[in-house]
Amino acid sequence: MGTGTPPQCLPERSSVTGRRSPTRTGSAGKRPVTHTGSLLPVSKRRGHPGGEVNAGGSGGRAPRCVLAQLTTSNRDDPLNAVRAGTPCVLWELYDSYKKFFKKEQVHPPQFKKKSKSRLSFTESDPASFEIDHTNKRVRLPKLGWVKCRFTQKMEGQHNSVTVRWNGMRWILSVQAKIEVSEPIHPSDTIVAGDFGVVRRVTFSDGVVVAPIDVSWAENRKAFYQRKLKNKTKFSQNWKKVVRKIGKLDSRIANVRKDQTHKFTHAYSKSHAVIVLGDLNIQNMSASAAGTIEKPGKNVKQKSGLNRSILRQGWGELGRQLEYKQLWQGGFVEFQSERYTSQHCPACEHTSLLNRAIQAEFKCVECGFSANADDVAAQNQLQKFLSSDNGGALLASGYRASVNSLWSGQSTDSALKQEPIEGVVQNA
Q1: What counts of helices (H) and strands (E) characterise the chain?
Q2: Is the model's pTM score more than 0.85?
Q3: CA distances from residue 288 to 172, 195, 256, 309, 315 in whole angstroms, order as listed
Q4: Phi and psi angles of residue 323, each rounded to the nearest 5 degrees, phi first
């Protein structure tokens, strides 16, 4: 998001990243909230008679509902549900062409083939759908009333509803507007985090987020991919294997999303300001194959590193922290991570030799050693506090949440350098 002053006087753009900050107009306002839920026919769910399936939480904000009944034709052919949204799809196509001819968008509508298209439709007319919490059902265009189970009540004024097929089940998303008062964050601390592969995120207050472990699902996916190459394309057995691979992809995504939501929901309540690295993940995970004229080196090793980077979902974690901090009254600052893992916090010597191995930091000048991710997180915090934005926050009453690199005990201080100097003196 990119901010650097207290939430009461956030600038419109950040001098570091140029990301937009939220608009605050008063003590209360309307905020769009998207309620999501999973929809599933009864006949395709085992062990849950009547469709009583708990779709899980999503950070305490998005109520979930599970579709318990679909018509027989929709069970056999999921495309029938999409036909219900044909008028909406045609309107979106017309609106896209209209924007293109008015030069409001660069490219015309891009049509996708069947294998890459998503079965979904959106209804933006509130009069065309209805949600009945009392009778646990929802009315969809041309589908009629469909039984649902709501784990939480959908608040606010419902503006639109979207139904899509994710390869395993039907997902229902309802966008609503609710009026909320201006939030005030319960904390006044500043913390910085460093992204990694061995550690998903390491924060300056000593909190370490474990990496995402989906090895079982990835091994099963590789097994089915090997079986897929021996099947006749578009045969029934080929389609069965494709569906199994799609279910495993959804499982991997759900595991990553679930762990991310649980952590960000709890951690956003702990600190008012969270500093994260502004990484270009697309370039970091680019292939090293090169070209025919200039072939790449260590292509297989780089491919494994790319999978490890994408598996952690750094961008999604930062996105969730960003909007959940706004809900709590705080904000997230993005800044560069350049040289943070090579800079010594004791003597301020920066060298590539300070990090000879991946996990350990050892200064070649003063001999200071610690975990490399811990050092990077502390340097991220110090870098932000030494900037104009960080100095303004400290002057307004905010304080840094830091961790002693040796003891591992979290402390709050206005200066990050104090516990590190104490450790060096004791050493």
Answers
A1: 11, 17
A2: no
A3: 39, 22, 26, 14, 21
A4: -80, -30
